[in-house]
Amino acid sequence: MTLTPTLFSLPxxxxxxxxxxxxxxxLRPKRTFVSIITLISVxxxxxxxxxxxxxxxxxxGFDKELREKVLGFxxxxxxxxxxxxxxxxxxxxxxxxxxKNVTGVAPFVLGQVLVDTQxxxxxxxxAAPFMRGIDPQSESNVSVLPSSIVEGSLDLSGRGxxxxxxxxxxxxxxxxxxxxxxxxxxLKKMRENRGKEGETMIMPDDYEVRGIFDVGYDEYNAYFMVxxxxxxxxxxxxxxxxxxxLVKIRDPYRASxxxxxxxxxxxxxxxxxxxxxxxTMMQAVLVEKNVMLYIMFFIVIxxxxxxxxxxxxxxxxxTREIGVMKALGATNRQSMWVFLGQxxxxxxxxxxxxxxxxxxxxxxxxxxxNLMRHWTGFQLFPADIYGFSELPSLVVPRDMIIICGGSxxxxxxxxxxxxxxxxxxxxxxxxxxx
Length: 434
Description:
The protein has helices at 10-13, 18-26, 33-73, 89-97, 136-139, 165-170, 184-192, 218-223, 229-235, 255-266, 275-278, 280-317, 319-327, 332-363, 365-376, 383-386, 397-423, 427-431; strands at 77-80, 102-112, 114-117, 126-127, 130-134, 149-152, 160-164, 178-182, 205-213, 224-228, 244-249, 271-274. The chain is an alpha+beta fold.
């Protein structure tokens, strides 16, 4: 027999519990089938944890980059009156700004217009972008637009406007070019007067391109242009009213809470919308992150079954040792913790190795993408689709704790059944294998 009473004197020679000492002895590397399965179990847990860390960190990176780009041009909250323009908006701005979580407020007018270019030669181009009317002084408090001008300047005086970099490229526009803008009001009047006596043609307004902006997000660069608040009010017959207010707060993740506070302060005649409600892409990223977390945990569950198989095989091979151990006075609890200790050691090694491998892979993620692009000639992460030149990632300590802790618990639960079976084994029946 391989187990002798001297084993029970080991706790006197070491501070480690008897159960853990025996578990370590059983896990001592040997060239056996069990040791190979144990190694495979460690590798399985390692791969599961590392894949979870890589996927969740990349999704966090997407979320952070998209949020910065989307919220750089759009504010965290929008305040407006449903089915009506916002009159006496200065009073509403002061009320919104009095909230302790609000860091900036700015009025805006937003709508779609028809644009025709005026090239010196060649055919004119037409488009229907969104036009945003802003107050340049207060706009710097809620968006990155004033600091995102890459050509020209944010000069909205007179009939000046600024356009997105991709819109300028698509429409072949440069600083100093002129475009014609027809508002929905003008188009509606022409449609109503069509065929009537005294029908007149309403000429579009002529604007000059004073600057080109790049806010880091292709959708805004391609479909938005900006004019002064006064010109936008004139195009939409708003007099001295606006469509709403853009609000920036200290913590974007508290948008719903602050929106409820503002809603209570402003009353039922107002509506407050958050950035999550207005951005379906941001909602999609958050949902995908949570779904991927659940799906990837199944990889860890599969790896945990490897630990179960290892323990079952090990218990079958060590049946007589279990019988001797119990015959010498080991309790059911001690017997169970010998095998749970084995699972704990395998799980900790696998989780630690997975954490290290995941962090290493995240560090070299862009180098790996470049290598794969060189080998395959295929763009695995096209910048023109995702809007990022590199694969983003963000390591969140809370997510690392959830992944590592959750993986450890899953592995221990997977080992509970075979360990309990070993602890309840009858010594007489076990010794029959002698």
